[in-house]
Amino acid sequence: xxxxxxxxxxxxxxxxxxxxxxxxxxxxxxxxxxxxxxxxxxxxxxxxxxxxxxxxxxxxxxxxxxxxxxxxxxxxxxxxxxxxxxxxx
Length: 89
What we know:
The protein is of the alpha+beta class. Helices cover 42% and strands 22% of the residues.
């Protein structure tokens, strides 16, 4: 689901105060990273991910994470990406 620009802007402003919850390291997009992001999205809806390795392909990896977790990629800034997935409750 594509986010409206106003919704995306609101989520980006909320994400500024968040600390990264999931880190992508030298092993890349392993099943552990995908599971950790999936659980974090279940718990928080809005999650910040930090790319410690693969910094030259942050946007590509963020798009892959978006597909793998059925979430929305709100923004990528530098080596950080913000993901959103609406909770059912």
